[in-house]
Amino acid sequence: MAIDAATVRKVARLARIAEPEEKLEPLAKELSGILAWIEQLNEVDTADVEPMTTAIHTPLPMREDEVTDGGAPERVLANAPKAANNFFVVPKVVE
Question: Three-state SS string across the chain, please?
Answer without folding.
Answer: CCCCHHHHHHHHHHCCCCCCHHHHHHHHHHHHHHHHHHHHHHCCCCCCCCCCCCCCCCCCCCCCCCCCCCCCHHHHCCCCCCEECCEECCCCCCC
